[in-house]
Amino acid sequence: MTVETTPVIDAALARRLVDAQFPQWAGLPLRLLAPAGSDHVIYRLGEELSVRLPRHDGAIEQARKEAEWLPRLAPHLPLAVPEVVAVGEPGFGYPWPWAVSRWLDGEVATADTLSGSHETAVALAEFLTALHRIDAAAAEHLTGEPLAERDAETRSAIAEVRGTFDAAAMTELWDTALAAPGWGRPLVWFHGDFHTGNLLTTNGRLSAVIDFGELGTGDPACDLTIAFTLLSPETRATFRSALDVDDDTWTRGRGWALATGLNAYTSYAATSPRVAAQTTRQMTQALLG
Predict the structure, then answer these.
(1) Does 94 reside within a domain?
(2) In whole angstroms, what is the distance from residue 171 CA to residue 158 CA?
(3) Model's pTM, two decimal places?
(4) CA–CA distance, 56 with 204 (Å, rounded to integer)
(5) Alpha-carbon distance 62 to 266, whole Å?
(6) Phi, psi for 270 (deg, rounded to 5)
(7) Domain holding 77: CATH number?
(8) In b/e form, how buried is each residue of 45-71, taking b as 16+ CB within 10 angstroms?
(9) Which DSSP category does 94 fall into?
(10) CA separation, residue 274 to residues 127, 174, 185, 233 (Å)
(11) Model confidence at 1: pLDDT above 50
């Protein structure tokens, strides 16, 4: 995906946007959340709200998508999800929609703390099971791309990391994932970006799932990426059993983990040791199965 850079996003811009469009919150302090993700600059607004400003044009649909769909999904899910309370408009040179949401307390999930937790593995499976059970018929326009759409970029990325990773093993896994039969069943909801950075914990237990910008319908294999970003081989087996994943879907899930890991690694690893470590783990675990 090609994205454009944004104007400079700083506290002064966020303050002007909030005060002009939502004067009821003009008196609330803004505090930058760091580090934030690659898609948004995030400010905490007072104690109960957050402001999310897209960094690039690849993230500009998220505010309205979450505002439309999460109120319909949330009552059926066992973990908290974002609640958008207002969608802001472009202004002061900032060109895109942005969101004000309820603040969700919690710490970002990490493999260091949760990889060995079978309780976490079951909780993840329960969340995805509940998501898959929600009727997706009204959201066919959100159908996601098939894994094969990533073929060219994934093979290019494998070539780029040759010498750092086992390119032959990556190619073998990628070929196997592409050869696996497709979903072939009714569309189901998927999160679309289900990794550790989009999970929150409270007192060591999963409490919320955030960042539904890639929310869509279709093959749920993409959400199996979490099994490789967060879990160990032992807890991954617990997750797979609890979710009751067939062999073909699991194989496609390994392909998604490889493809998304490669994309993030080649884009950000040179400048972000955190991303480098996370994606290295993701791809290594996907190769293990």
Answers:
(1) yes
(2) 7
(3) 0.94
(4) 33
(5) 24
(6) -65, -25
(7) 3.30.200.20
(8) beeebbbbbbbbeebbebbebbbebbe
(9) B
(10) 26, 25, 37, 22
(11) no
What is the C-alpha to C-alpha distance for residues 116 and 234, in angstroms, rounded to an integer? Answer: 8
- Residue 109 has a CB neighbour count (10 Å cut-off) of 27
Q: Which residues pair with 37 in a beta bridge?
A: none
What would the pLDDT profile of 10-59 be if each residue is shown by its tens digit? 999 999 999 999 999 999 999 999 877 789 999 999 999 999 999 999 99
C-alpha 130/C-alpha 219 separation (Å) is 15
CATH at 242: 3.90.1200.10
The span from the CA of 246 to the CA of 110, in Å, is 27
Classify residue 88: in a domain, yes or no: yes
> Tell me, what amino acid is at 275?
V
Amino acid letter for position 203: N
- Please state, in angstroms and as integers, the Cα–Cα distance from residue 280 to each residue in 89, 154, 196, 259, 267, following that order: 38, 15, 14, 12, 13
> Using CA atoms, how far apart are residues 25 and 17, in angstroms rounded to an integer?
11
CA distance 200 to 107: 5
Start-end of H helices in the chain: 11-21, 62-73, 111-114, 118-133, 151-161, 167-179, 226-229, 233-243, 247-268, 273-288
